[in-house]
Fold this protein.
Amino acid sequence: MYLSESFIPILKNNPSEAKIKSHQLMLRVGMIKQASAGIYSWLPLGFKVMKKIEGIVRQEQNKIGAQEILMPTIQSSEIWKESGRYDDYGEEMLRITDRQKREMLYGPTNEEQVTEIFRSSIKSYKSLPQLLYHIQWKFRDEIRPRFGIMRGREFYMKDAYSFDVSDEEAFFSYNKFFLSYLRTFKRLSLTAIPMAADTGPIGGNLSHEFVILADTGESKIFTDKRIFELDSSNTNLEKLSLENMRKKYEQFYAVTDEKFNKEEFEKIVSEDNRLITKGIEVGHIFYFGDKYSKAMATSVDLPGGKKDFVKMGSYGIGVSRLVGAIIEAKYDDKKEIMKWPLSVAPYDIALIPMINKNDNTALQKANNINLELIKNDIDAIIDDTDENFSSKVKKMNLIGAPFQIIIGKKSDGDLLEFKEIGKETQNLPLKKIVEIITKQKSLI
Ligand code: P5A
């Protein structure tokens, strides 16, 4: 893709309305455009990143046996009246009346809708467990939408729902999502810590928030530092392996402020290991047993002829928020250098030819390099403009492709000036460059 033909409206300076670096960068490089308070259009660069995040989230859901569906954004008030949340949800719910005067709403979450789907088809314990998810826009009329897409009113969420026959089986499902979340965030190059959390309007008494550390985060967290050293790569999807993994995490104190108890914290965690800081909530999982199934008369036949309400959990990932969360983690706003993890980068590599007015040999060379990259499934952006070198590099540093090739005076012969962002420049032949990128892509 040529930069001159792309829709990447880059601003010279940081927009003054943005208070945190992710919001600054997203506006600066034209990833999003505000439509109204807390509501955004996604422009090509931002949309590409969000879609890549969505793809990884989807793969990791599928790996634990969750099945994808798509529920609507607009829901009927009837099911919310059944669950009792129509009134409880209050002003955060956007209520709509259609032309027949029916009360509708823009879904803030889908526990009711998915329970309605489940109860119309599944009648027996033999069909359990069921793990269903969708990736869909949500609307919450947040009182203070802020920080761009971090706390939007309209936002993109992956929400999954589990249906089980007993508490024991339901914990098994809960633990599968727990593992899937650790794997998902790792593939996005984030260290997300599961923290015991409050359940708020979703309900239930077992819940973990997945939080990444960031000074600009809205969650205050209290934790034992040693939790950062844990690793779940040896865990498999067997019941016992999953239980042990969760125990491993739960042995360390890690809570959000609603669950914080100073006395307990100071008793359990030695001074050296205490960490009190801020973070961004990128995921949240809940177990609420029969809260919705009871209210919405959703039961299954058990062996022996009895019936019982199904046991449910729900599991959310903020897909649009993750775009901002990754920027908070990876953007050096002092040097104005963004380094997207290769797994979600809008482009794999930037080609920066030094173009003189009457000489387009460097651009020609960039085109030839690009043909070879395309053959190898490597997605490049080429700065084909005749701006000066330093402003070209500046722009590409903001766009944030993890690799760059500079095609200038020095690039005679086969060796190219190749740079992995954050590392020293190397002179390498194209074949070697392709090898390096292909290898890193295979590890995503
Ligand atoms: C779990 C899935 C739920 O809604 N019901 C279905 C449960 N949980 S949650 O914690 O309320 O939201 C899940 C994740 O969505 C992101 N999120 C937001 N992102 C951007 N703007 C918002 N206003 C917003 N609200 C929630 C968070 O990442 C949260 O963890």
Observations:
- The chain is about 35% helix and 30% strand.
- The pocket of '5'-O-(N-(L-prolyl)-sulfamoyl)adenosine is lined by residues 109, 140, 142, 151-152, 155, 157, 159, 202, 281-284, 286, 314-316, 318, 320-321 (CB under 6 Å).
- The chain has two domains: 3-330, 349-442.
- The CA atoms of residues 201 and 442 lie 41 Å apart.
